[in-house]
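[job 0417] fold request received: dITP/XTP pyrophosphatase
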Amino acid sequence: MTRLVLASNNAKKLAELQALFAPLGVELVTQGSLGIPEAEEPFDSFVENGLAKARHAARLSGLPALADDSGLAVEALGGAPGVLSARYATLFGQPKTDADNNRVLLAQMAHLREPAQRAARFVCSLVAVRSATDPEPLIAMGRWQGQILPALAGEGGFGYDPLMFIPSLGQSVAQLSAAQKNALSHRALAAADLLRQLREVWHLG
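[job 0417] inference complete; emitting C-alpha cells
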C-alpha cells in the first residue's frame, strides 16, 4: 500500500481525506506522527500554501506528500478570512479556536443582513508531490457555494461548518451527515479531481 504523508495534524481532516482517498488503496499518515513540525504558510493563496506544506512534508519524511489548504472566502469581506481562516480570530486579539473564529466572523458581518450580501464559499486546494523537488505537482481545486448564517446551526463538522448554509440543501454544513458532506463538499470536489490525476499520472489505484 502506498503511504502518503498528510501535511496536517487535524484528525477530522485526516478522517475526511482517508475516506475520500480510500478507492486508491493509499494510507495517509499525519506529519505529526512522523515527528514533522508544521510548515510556514506565508503566502496569500491556498495553492501556494498547499504546495509549500506538501514540499515541506515530503522533504522531511522522504515520502510522497499530500497537503490540503482550505478555508472560507466571504465575498463581502473581499475573500476573507481566506488563507487565514484557521486563525482568523487572532487578527482581532482572540484565541485560535473554531468558536472564536465563528464569533469574530459573525461580528464582522453583523451589518450585512440580506442573504445575497452574505454569499460565501468554502475553497479547498489539494496538492500532491512525489518528492520535495517534484517538478510536476498535482493540484486540484474545489469550491462549495453558500451563505453565512446569522447564528450557528448544527453540531457536526468543524471550523465554519455551523455558519455555512447551503441553499440547495436547506441546511448548514454542520447539519449534514458525514456521508453527505464527504459527497458534496469543496474537499470532496477537489479530491475527486486529485483522484483522477493520481490514477492518470502516478498510476495509483
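[job 0417] notes: The chain has a mean pLDDT of 95. Residues 151 and 163 are 7 Å apart (CA to CA).
[job 0417] exit 0
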